[in-house]
Amino acid sequence: MTKLLLLITSLFILLFTLQAQKPCGTVEYNRFLLSKNPALANATSAFERKMAWQLSTGKPQLIQDLTDQYTIPVVFHIVYKNDYDSFPESVLKIQLARLNEDYNNLNSDLHKVPAAFTNRIGKMNLKFVLAKTDPNGNPTNGY
Predict the structure, then answer these.
(1) Of 65, 103, 105, 121, most Cβ neighbours within 10 A?
(2) Total-model pTM
(3) Which H or E run includes 128?
(4) CB 66 within 8 A of CB 124
C-alpha cells in the first residue's frame, strides 16, 4: 500500500511539474498585448518597479491610497447550444454593475465582511465598461 501511495504521489508530482512548464494562455496573450502597445508596456513596467520598491522597503502602499481610476473594457462571451439557453442583455448589465460595486466598495453587503478583514477593504478605483472595440480595433458592443 505504501509503495502504491508513493507511486501515485510521484506520478502526480511529475504531471504537475510537466503542466507547470507550459505557460498559461493568459501569460502569452499578455505578452502579445505588451508587444503591441508600448504605452501599456511602459505603464506595466512602472507599476512593477513601484511595487518592487514598496515591497523592498517593507511599506507597501495600500489599495486605499490609489487615486487614479482605471477603466477596464469587458467583453462577455456567451456560449449556448439553443436559443432558449441564452439570457437577456439586462442580466449582463446587472453583472457589470455588480463588478463595479464590488471593486469600489459600493455594494450593500459590506457589513457581511468578517471583522478580521475589514481593515483590508479598499477602493480599487476600477471602472468596468462594455468594450467598444475588439483586440483588432473592430467595433463591438461587448456581448
Answers:
(1) 103
(2) 0.52
(3) strand 126-130
(4) yes
pLDDT in tens, the chain (143 residues): 445 444 455 555 655 555 555 556 777 788 888 888 888 888 888 878 877 777 777 665 554 455 678 888 888 888 888 888 888 889 889 999 998 988 888 888 888 888 888 777 777 788 899 989 887 888 888 77
Q: What gap in Å lies between CA 133 and CA 141, rounded to an integer?
A: 8
What angle do the packed helices 38-57 and 25-36 form, to 10 degrees?
A: 120
Assess contact for 40 and 33: CB atoms under 8 A. Answer: yes
Amino acid in position 73: P
Q: How far apart are alpha carbons 63 and 22 in whole angstroms?
A: 32
CA-to-CA dists, residue 12 to 5, 35, 116, angstroms:
10, 36, 35
Residue type, 90: S
